[in-house]
Amino acid sequence: MNTARILLWSPCVRCLAPFARTTRLQAVLSTGGLAHRGLGLSSSGVQVHRAFHVSSRHDKKQDLPSFVKESEKDGDKDKSLVVHDDLFERTGREAKNKGTFNKAVDVFNKRDVRRRGHVDFIYAALRKMPEFGVERDLAVYNKVLDVFPKEVFVPRNYIQRMFNHYPRQQECAVQVLEQMENYGVMPDEETRVLLFQIFGEKGHPVRKYQRILYWFPKFKHANPFPVPHQLPEDPMDLARFSLTRIAGDLDSKVTVYQMPYTDITEAGEEVEETHIVGIQSPDQQSLLAKHNPNKPVFVEGPYPLWLRKTCVYYYVLKADPVPPEEKVEEYIDPELVGPQQSIHYPLWVEMDLTRDMGDDFSFDVDEVDEGAIYGMCMAGRGDQITLSRWIAGLQETNPILGRIPTVFRLESGPQELQDLTEGQRPTGEDTEAEHRTEPDTEEEQQQMGGQRMKQ
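and the corresponding structure tokens:
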């Protein structure tokens, strides 16, 4: 009876051969070798476990790009994060922009309906966003959140909600929102709908979204001196913006002492001259006019200034600190500066505040005496010749600089620091100017000042 039943099953099993996924399985089905397997018997009559399970459903896959099909051949790489990075690199071969980034996300969404490996793909997408220039695009963040499967991670009861249902997926979504927060991207209504569909109304990503909506409007205009996201590309415009930001006086005036140009020497060589932009306030001019001509002034720098991811360098014209014996204390008349000047914010208040005996409000303060700063500038090169032109330009509005010796105390510039290795020092005019000291006698000071102005 069993033998006859097996013979009847053999033709039916052969019908499944065209739907088999592998060549080996097709050979087994076509030869009727599954008849013994169906009974759990080997050719020798020993009972064995079933080797596979055949489904009659045909595998229907959507057409994918050729480079995606090549990456799918390596089964071991599909489970690693390197494959997702390779996907972004292949789509961004021609250009890395918003279009190619969205193309990579679409390719991943079409690869599998279940979105297997979506967490690793989202982490790779977050890391690749700055390379494609979409780290501040809200639509791209919503598209990345749309990669999560919908209504799968929603907790069904309070116990699942209490024990952090699907923690890895929730942490990944929180990481997406944190990157939006770091780049100052405000989520919108579409972000809220996506989070509700993915994690429900009580998930951790939804709470993170609510905190961002609460705090972002409060701190959006908290900085009175915001830095724009797109800085000026012109070096002169960037120098104007930077010097205006450094100067604390609103009456400071920005002056262009030299425009960039190309000069041809007598030997026929082309020499490119850089820009020189300076800033000085009326108070600095009055302080410089009161400076003792027998004491030198110093040109120091370069000092770095960071504007988001851009670093610029500036130079200052300053004097030595005033000795204690020469300091003159300014007397403040309490009648001129008193409570009557401002009712709510008085500038002069004399009152004893009663405090608890256990309160200790004493702390150490290191007072550092610094000299007065008479001006600042930014130049394309930080050598002594370029900065001497800045001093010569300052003499037009500050004639006293013609009688004051100027000493250059310059450090290695940014270009020199990139070319040199550790332990090396530059040679030339900058090194000599750095090690020059203040002359001892007044005659040497005047001679040195005349030589500096001649240069």
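(Above: one complete record from the training split.) Confidence is low (pLDDT under 50) at residues 32-62, 67-71, 73-80, 416-455.
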